[in-house]
Please model this.
Amino acid sequence: MRRALVAGLVVVLVYLTAPMSTAAVVAPAPGARPVTATQDFDQWYHPGGATRGSVTVSQTADLVRQRVKVSWEGLRPTRGSGVGASYPVVIMQCWGPAAQVTRERCWAAGRGMEFGTFNDATAWDRGLFGDFGDDSANLSTVMSFTARDGQRYSWDPVAVDEAGKPAAWPDGSVRAGAPPDLSPDTYNFVLPPTLLAETGPDGRGAVDIELLPGDQLPSLGCTDAAECSLVLVPIGDPHCLPDDQLLLEEWVESCKPGAESSSFRDASTWKTPTNWERRFAFPLSFRKTQQVCGSDSRPETSVTGSPYLAQLMASWRPRFCLDRGLFKLGYTSLGEGEARRQFHTNLEERRSDGVNAVLTARSPETDPPAPVVYAPVATTGFTVGFLLDHASGGEVTRLNLTPRLLLKMLTQSYTAAAPGIETHPAIAGNPTWWGSDPELLRANPGLELRAVGVAPSAYPLFVQGDLDLTWALTAYIAADQAATAWLAGAPDEDGMVVNPKYRAQTLPYAQFELRDDWRVPGSAPAYKDQLWFNLVANQVSSVVSAAVALVQARPTATTNETIDNGQTVYKRPERQQTGSRALLAITDLADTSVFGLRSAALRTPAGNFVQPDQDSMAFGLRATALDPKTGILTVDQAKLDGRAYPGTTVVYAGVPTSGLPRSEADNYATFLEYAAGPGQEYGTAVGNLPVGYLALSEPLRKQTREAAAAVRRQQGEVPPPPPELAQDPAGGLLPPPANPVLDEAGTPPAAASPVVTTTAPPPSSATRPVTSVATRADTSSFGRWLLPSLLGIGLLAGVLAPVVSAAGTPGHPVRRWAARLFRRGGA
Amino acid sequence: MRRLVLVLLLLAVSAAPAQAAQSYYPITGSGSSWSENAIKQWIADASTIGLPVSYSGSGSSAGRLDFAQKKNDFAVSEIPFQGVDPKTGNADNANGRPFAYMPIVAGGTAFMYKITVNGKLVRDLRLRGETVTQIFTGGITDWSDDRITADNNGRRLPAKRIVPVVRSDGSGTSAQFTLWMAKQHPDQYCPFFAQHVDPARQCGLTSYYPTFGNAVGQVGSSQMAGYISAEYGEGAIGYVEYSYARALNYPVAKVKNAADYFTEPTDTNVAVALQFARIERDAAKETYLTQILDDVYTSADPRTYPLSSYSYMIVPTSEDGKLTTQSGRSLAKFARDFLCQGQQHMGKLGYSPLPLNLVRAGFEQVTKVPGAEQATLTPKDCNNPTFDPNDPDSNRLAKIAPMPKDCDKVGQGPCGSAGGPAQSGREGEEGRTPDGQTGQQPGAVDNDGDGVPDPVAGVDPVTGEQVGANRVGTGETTGSATELAAARSGATSTALAVLAAVELVLVLLVPTFVARAVRRRRARGSDG
Model:
């Protein structure tokens, strides 16, 4: 008995210590830290070359729908480029624990049978791939996909019998066609043609992959409880059957190491048993799914306006509907200008489905017809998001931008390499895009970007519409002397001039404008007669679309010239490939942060470049001016010091304090009380303040609490902002202002004004009176000069008439005198 | 001890979360850009209940094609499947995929335009249907045309070329617009159709608007609105859903209805108009719930906006290889939510909410989607803003819709312009200042050197009143198109210049040569 036990133990021990599969699997690491795996390759991977490779994933835990960066070294260099490249790298998301991942659990295209699998030394699995019963037909079979719920799909279109069942799996276990959640939104796999991952000659490479949680991709069903994995397959040389067992002569050649034929060593060979064994598998763990609202027929109480708060509302709304002590909160994203207009109209009409509370970042231009209190809800800001690759490979992690650079992009002053640009009246000598602008290179020493195909990248993604974001950005630009001087027509140090269509444009403005109407000459090879600057303008219709287009690296300019039904049509290009991405987007910090995008550092009047983060926004709060009529703070560009982010913005809810129905008034007051308290807790749970926002300072919270009380009372009072706000708008977020010696960052205080003075702002900038739209003076030079010129002509005629008549009269004394003069000269 | 364990267990069970929200399978859709602003709002609302929806506004034709190719779970289109597209000749059907139509939102196709006078936008343009048709078929090419002037009660716009902007992609907006032209103004439209679309086909709608004359093509509603609002969009006029113009704060033309009033596509006017829409009521027909708008075009209610319509969602009604019961459940939930609570936002966004009878019909269609959960429509819980509990079959918005102002009537107005019909081309009228300005604010000055015009004090120097107070609307200035007394067209100026030069020459030379000739004759005479 004891002997059997010992034997059993020995067996168990042996089993446990036996070598696992040669594939590298790593244990999950806590938190959002990079994880690295290393492994040795088999002898056929790269004969005479790489034998050990390592792969690093930037984050494998606490994941949401986001991009992660995968980088590697020691892999076999890719030969060629694009779809037919040899030895690329394939990366995909799969379900199930990393140690047990199989090919059929991986979410990836490229599943057709190819020669590498067909001829692999390990026989291919006929259950997995399906079997037509005839190997020549089997060359066109496909590898099935098994979803987490157990349903198997053929993924690719396959031959079916009369009942609709795939012929290759006669037992009917596989459903023909793709899983229902396969769509362009879920093409996250790094496989050509969608995405490419190539290894450089030094054996290194890097690429981003978007990871999808279970609610976006149910076939994988990745949640906090259901494990998933990230698999990287380095493609190497095939390990074929012995030569005499290969059916075709050309296959013998192709199986040789380093052979020319790419079909044995391209991305679709990720599923050959040989390549599959070389995989790196990383366990992924996703964040617990957010709670969401249940089915609910309560009427909503809505706030309308500022797109700055879209991410905040996505976090707060589920919290509000789940908590019976709160109410069902509605939100409509609308440009602030339009929202304010509708709000004012509705203060008179009082329709229940109109705008009853507005979200705004600026004071309205006209006084509202009923008393309205403005209460701070959150602090965030505008950003210039960027997605750039160095010319030498690798992603750019920091970008410095000056106001004049931004102005150049907003005034259509780059040529975007237009064909026939020489015919443009003014800007033919300007750089083709910001990436080759010497001003950018001076602000970013060492930056080098690729210059291929710059037309869709020459202008940033920008949002059409009447937005406070646009106003804030152009106010930042307007405060810069170099920018306004350039706008007035002075060339910059390198000779670049502003597009004359924008010369002396009035800044700031609330809507971006397109003004240049130059057309590509008809003699150009492409884009004949097109409004070039309209084609290359990267317009989007909403702030979040700008962030989405940036994360997909897909410009919205219509620079793809195609023929459709006999007509030349201009369409949007496809995604930019990793390694040559270059795109900017003017959007907000909340969307940039949620999508994991980087934001540019903007230059302050002190001369240094500041990135948006909580500290710099807190300093930005100190640099604000208060509108005494509405209590709204906006950044006073002249007061910015070297630590403040120029794009800081406080977003307010404007709520009427009289005339609201009782239940609505209570709901809005509850909303404001939530905003003043629990809503400002940072975190990722529903109801928290998401990443990309700065919690309200103490004075701002007090302002909101007082506003909430006034809204609840509905007596028509508009409480003034608390006095603490004028003393220190960032109270509670930053230590109290100290002596303006050198601060920790080492930058000297701004010469113009002390760094930390927060006395009441000077009256001239605070009392910004209500004005009508500044009208442009109109002149008519023709009208002015017509009469004088007519009189001048008459005078001229009068003067010349006697001279001419004298010349015409023979024997006239003047004529004789003149003739004598010439005769003296002649004779 | 056991009892304690039992009690603890009970407590644990009762303290469990009240409602574990069920997750929804993600769904995708594509199609109309006309409806895109509405759909984006509903997608944001759906995400709060954990229902992921993605939508691509690639155009109605592309959406219907995606549906036929089983690439999406639902399509959105302004028009039903046509059978064959008249312009391209391609098939336009569901390719055997079983489907049903469901109305989703109503709205007006608006004519967004850009005409500036003295640097300010004209905001009070009105047009008859015939005029619109002629503009978009090349019959009228200048804004100063007599027919446009007549529509505006004698107020003449400056001479400026009209640039019609049309959709170059397969668009349901184009289809709705051309359908209206074909039905209401065939005399002008049908020859155009025969010449540019298809001479062999009977005159009717087209989703691919042909380019002609000065017309410019743009892809998508957003691009069209962007073009018109651009600086080079001067003189442009295009057709988009009202929300696009509103978002950019651009004006739309008021269109004349059958009661001789000019109206805008506000949500109330559209609601009034669609009371006259005939809806296919035969549930057995494939076109069940599609709209017949002939009576909308000719409705005699003064508030009607003639180009009102609603757009459809095309939903699958079987497990067809793309839709499963899981995605069907999501689609049904999405639809029920936007048919009810989702309609609350439509007025703000520039659409018009669906009336309750269409919502009821929509609920019936949703039950055909496989996987749809059982749900009955209780109007009280529906939160649809058109619902009036005392009169369930009516549209509350249509009832509260205000009557148009008198100045919107033919022969009066136009509303919003200064002082009624303008006198153009007459010298010395109305005491204008010599350089042609008409009572505007003083020019901008910049005293503090920051490059930005100084804020002007809030008092209007001309009227002495507070700027912005007691003004109806937003207090923004609009361009009133009055011709300057001193203005002349370019051609006239050139002619005058030539005349002046000729006169100069004559003044100098003629007397001299006449005198010489006279003298010579005298000399000859004295000799003779």
